[in-house]
Amino acid sequence: MDHGDHVSLLRRGVVPGEWADLGSGEGAFTLALADLLGPHGRIHSVDRDGGALRRQRAAMERRFPQARVDYRRADFTRPLDLPPLDGVVMANSLHFVRDKRPVLDLVRGLLKPGGRLLLVEYDGDRGNPWVPYPLSYRTWERLAAESGFAATELLATVPSRFFGAIYSALSIRGAVAAGARSDDRGTHPSPSRG
Asked: 89-110, pLDDT tens digit by residue?
């Protein structure tokens, strides 16, 4: 895949505003996000690997010097101190997490109501040593709904040598359910018994 593929996977889901790229690595999708947002957006690039973030910063300064990017060495599976976000990109990062629900609860809590989660993943449910816990688009549709996201849609696919395809999907943070706390940061009310 090249930069054009990365941009095409994100293009239909990106809106202006403040975004985070969680598990950004060396920044292939951070660069695509910067390309789509232009100088008016803001990106919080989060990864555990400080060396990858340094390489990403150098690439960003060469290719998109006007981009406003905050580089954070952190683990996206733990709470992050970020402002309320218009969108989150998780590109080839969620497949490293076995138990996805707690992470999705954290991500949901980072988003403004109506905020966007753009997921880029391999379209398969069987892993390997390099992609241990992938999730097909069908699995993502179910998991997204269970995790408080709505209006999930498949945006784009590109061929993959290893899993057949890589897809991008858009999911919207759903409204807080009746009876939920007004400061909902990823918690869910108990189901009603009726």
From this structure: 999 999 999 999 999 999 999 9
* Helix (H), strand (E), coil (C) string for the chain: CCHHHHHHHHHHHCCCCEEEEECCCCCHHHHHHHHHHHHHCEEEEEECCHHHHHHHHHHHHHHCCCCEEEEEECCCCCCCCCCCEEEEEEECCHHHCCCHHHHHHHHHHHEEEEEEEEEEEECCCCCCCCCCCCCCHHHHHHHHHHCCEEEEEEEEEEEECCCEEEEEEEEEECCCCCCCCCCCCCCCCCCCCC
Residue 63's pLDDT band, with cuts at 50, 70 and 90, is very high
Tell whether the model's pLDDT for residue 51 goes beyond 50: yes
Asked if residue 84 is part of any domain, the answer here is yes
Q: How far apart are the first and last CA of the chain?
A: 50
**Domain count within the chain:** 1
Query: 124-155: per-residue pLDDT in tens?
Result: 999 999 999 999 999 999 999 999 999 999 99
Q: What is the pTM of this model?
A: 0.88
Q: How many residues does the chain have?
A: 194
120 part of a folded domain? yes
